[in-house]
From TrEMBL:
GO terms for cellular component: mitochondrial nucleoid. GO terms for biological process: mitochondrial respiratory chain complex III assembly. It is found in: Mitochondrion matrix, Mitochondrion nucleoid. This is Mitochondrial nucleoid factor 1. Keywords: Mitochondrion, Mitochondrion nucleoid, Transit peptide.
Length: 118
C-alpha cells in the first residue's frame, strides 16, 4: 500500500512545476517537502492511515487538474477589488514584494509586518 501511495505522490510531484516567481512560497515546494518528510524511508514507509493518504492524493490530483476551476468557471476576469488575475500574479511576484518591502514609507509595509507577526 505504501509503495503505490508513494509512487502516486511522486507522479503528482513530477507533473507539477515550481513557480520561480514565488521562490519559497510556491505550493509545489511545500508539497515536495511534505512528501519528503512523510515518506522518509521511501517505498518502505509504513502508512498508519491508508484511507486518509488516498484521500489526500485524490484531493491533490484534483487541485493539479484544476478540477474546481474547470467545473465552476469565472464569469468575469476581475475580482471584487477590480484587479485582474494577471495583475494579481504580478503583485505577488517575489521581485515586486521585495521592492515593496524595501520601501518603509509605503502603505503596504505595515500590513506586511502585521502578517509576519501573525
Amino acid at each position: 500500500m505504501a509503495v503505490t501511495s508513494y509512487r502516486q505522490f511522486l507522479k503528482l510531484s513530477e507533473e507539477r512545476t515550481v513557480d520561480e516567481t514565488k521562490r519559497g512560497r510556491d505550493m509545489e515546494t511545500f508539497f515536495r517537502l511534505c512528501v519528503a518528510q512523510t515518506f522518509q524511508e521511501g517505498e518502505s514507509t509504513q502508512i498508519l492511515d491508508p484511507e486518509n493518504c488516498d484521500q489526500m492524493n485524490e484531493s491533490l490530483a484534483r487541485i493539479h487538474a484544476n478540477y474546481n476551476k474547470n467545473k465552476y468557471p469565472c464569469l468575469r476576469d476581475t475580482s471584487f477589488t477590480g484587479v485582474t488575475v494577471e495583475e494579481c500574479k504580478m503583485i505577488l511576484d517575489c521581485i515586486v514584494l521585495e521592492r515593496v518591502e524595501s520601501k518603509p514609507g509605503s502603505l503596504v509595509f505595515p500590513l506586511l509586518n502585521f502578517i509576519r507577526v501573525k
